[in-house]
Amino acid sequence: MHHNKLIFAILLFAVSLPLMAENSTKADGYTIHHNAFSTDTLSATVAKAYGIQRSKNRGMINISVIKDKAGTTGASTAAAVNVGIKRLIGRTDPVELKEIREDNAIYYIGVFGVVHGEKVTFDISVKPDGSGKTLKASLKQEFYAN
Fold first, then answer.
1. Could you report the per-residue pLDDT of 106-145, keeping only the tens digit for each?
2. How many CB atoms lie within 10 A of CB 79?
3. Beta strands in the chain (DSSP E)
4. In degrees to the nearest 10, what's the CA dihedral of 34, 123, 139, 81?
5. 61: confidence class by pLDDT, cuts 50, 70, 90
6. Is residue 31 pLDDT above 90, yes or no?
7. Number of structural domains found in the chain
8. Residue 19 maps to which CATH number?
9. Residue 24's domain spans which residues?
10. End-to-end distance of the chain based on CA atoms, in angstroms?
11. Strand order in 92-95's β-sheet?
């Protein structure tokens, strides 16, 4: 299973790179990295390993919280993470997140349904372990199911 986690983490990073224009938010000594994409871009092996349905009608959000440390790329930090997906029809739905730990990396992923051409806004709140502050971030994404 350890090998699958490494593959998953690498794939999440590789798949999301072309889809994001540095999707991150800096706040109070932390960087929140956030991106979303269709689950059909995951390999069948990775999707099966994590029980994720591959589909153009399923989206996935990936969030990581990095504590900024001078002279380094920072340290992955556990956090209480909540995501609401705001749809054009005005409804906001919570996204259930799953924490994944791989060596020193911590990711939070969630899967949700989408329709072709849907533009959504993700409202993200993060409370890093050991911090008394809740940090906010936002991500807008359009999904294409065809």
1. 999 999 998 888 899 999 999 999 898 999 999 999 888 7
2. 24
3. 24-27, 30-38, 58-67, 75-76, 79-86, 92-95, 97-102, 105-113, 118-128, 135-143
4. 0
5. very high
6. yes
7. 1
8. 2.60.40.3340
9. 2-143
10. 33
11. 92-95, 79-86, 118-128, 135-143
